[in-house]
């Protein structure tokens, strides 16, 4: 079993279901990549890099997007 | 003389009304109000994706025409300079937008901006190439310090965010407007179009409105009213208003009739 912490919540993945990249994680969550920006262990990753950003066991991922605000 | 335009960081805008996108009841209401407002600078916030409902917060913002409208990500929620800088960097990574409305509000009750953390964050962000529009209390000394550090505007508050109290900071706002070499955008607390007109009549370069439009019964109509008020106030300012006097000043001639 592997895991990622996504937006503060630990999510376990069976070894064969572990997302290999940020793009695969977003797919698994059902989030549209275009409006999301990520932090992987504190390092910012823009949407153009999601497909080429590998994920490893026990990483801490923050997924952030724009919403209404003043 | 060319058209009366607002210039921020070299970009020109015909509209002097900035609008926030929070608190609208629906994406449709927001889109209609933004359109009616004529706003060319529109603020947005950054938040964690709701993992259980990942598309929930995106509504409406994707429809904003970014060729016509300058999106202005804010750092709302930041309590320290470090958090604000992190949010600004995330916004830039997400969209390439280098403009940021810098707000650092550690106090959850009045949401008053922390001047020290705001100045610290501004120094970092300006050095990193951001176009920084800082939300501040109406403190003329702080406004000067921010201008000196290279911010694109200053955004002093009229009253606390979302409070609809109007301009409670008039005396110090007047000093900021008098002294500033960067545009002064009166932000926060403007609850009625007359409040916006008042700020513009004083010589503010622009105002930012969110709650008063978004939470009105009819946001489209309120956006229209604010647009007209900002135009009226700006026009009055340019027309050169006279100061108030204690005694009456007859507006009809007092000679050549009856008593003479």
Q: How would you explain this protein's 3D organization?
A:
- The complex is a heterodimer of chains A (70) and B (260).
- The mean pLDDT of chain A is 89.
- Chain A contains one helix and five strands; from the N terminus they run ββαβββ.
- Chain A has one domain (2-65): Beta-grasp domain (Ubiquitin-like (UB roll), Roll), CATH 3.10.20.
- Chain A has one helix at residues 22-29, and strands spanning 2-6, 9-13, 36-40, 43-45, 60-68.
- With 260 residues, chain B is α/β, with parallel strands linked by helices.
- Chain B has a single domain (6-239), classed as Aldolase class I (TIM Barrel, Alpha-Beta Barrel).
- Chain B contains eight helices and ten strands.
- Chain B has helices spanning 27-37, 81-95, 115-127, 140-149, 170-179, 193-202, 211-214, 219-239; strands at residues 6-8, 11-13, 17-20, 41-48, 70-73, 99-102, 131-136, 155-156, 185-187, 206-209.
- The longest helix of chain B is centred in the C-terminal third of the chain and has 21 residues, at 219-239.
- Chain B is globular, with a radius of gyration of 20 Å.
- The N and C termini of chain B lie far apart (46 Å).
- The model of chain B has no long low-confidence stretch (mean pLDDT 93).
- The A-B interface holds A 6-9, 29-32, 35-37, 39, 44-47, 62-70 and B 20-24, 30, 43-49, 51, 54-55, 57-58, 60-62, 71, 73-74, 76, 89-91, 93-95, 161-162, 208, 210-211.
């Amino acid at each position: 079993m592997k895991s990622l912490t996504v937006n503060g919540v630990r999510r376990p993945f069976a070894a064969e279901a572990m997302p290999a990249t940020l793009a695969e994680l977003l797919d698994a969550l059902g989030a549209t990549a275009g409006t999301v920006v990520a932090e992987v262990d504190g390092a910012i990753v823009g949407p153009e890099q999601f497909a080429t950003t590998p994920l490893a066991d026990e990483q801490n991922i923050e997924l952030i997007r724009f919403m209404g605000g003043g | 003389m060319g058209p009366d335009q607002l210039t921020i960081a070299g970009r020109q805008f015909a509209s002097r009304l900035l609008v926030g996108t929070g608190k609208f009841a629906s994406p449709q209401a927001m889109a209609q109000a933004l359109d009616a407002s004529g706003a060319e600078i529109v603020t947005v916030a950054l938040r964690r994706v709701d993992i259980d409902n990942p598309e929930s917060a995106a509504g409406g913002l994707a429809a904003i025409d970014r060729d016509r409208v300058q999106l202005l990500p804010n750092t709302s929620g930041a309590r320290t300079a470090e958090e604000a800088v992190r949010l600004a960097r995330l916004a830039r990574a997400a969209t390439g937008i280098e403009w940021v409305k810098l707000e650092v509000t550690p106090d959850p009750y009045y949401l008053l901006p922390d001047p020290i953390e705001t100045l610290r964050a501004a120094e970092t962000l300006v050095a990193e190439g951001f176009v920084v529009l800082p939300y501040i209390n109406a403190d003329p000394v702080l406004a000067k310090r921010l201008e000196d550090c290279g911010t694109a505007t200053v955004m002093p508050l009229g009253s606390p965010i979302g409070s609809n109290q109007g301009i409670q900071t008039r005396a110090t706002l007047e000093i900021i407007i008098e002294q500033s070499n960067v545009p002064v955008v009166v932000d926060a607390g403007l609850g009625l179009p007359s409040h916006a007109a008042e700020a513009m009549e004083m010589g503010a370069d622009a105002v930012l409105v969110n709650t008063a439009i978004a939470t009105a019964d009819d946001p489209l109509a309120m956006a229209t009213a604010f647009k007209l008020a900002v135009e009226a106030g700006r026009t009055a300012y340019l027309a050169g208003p006279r100061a108030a006097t204690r005694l009456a000043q007859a507006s009809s001639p007092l000679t050549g009739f009856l008593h003479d």
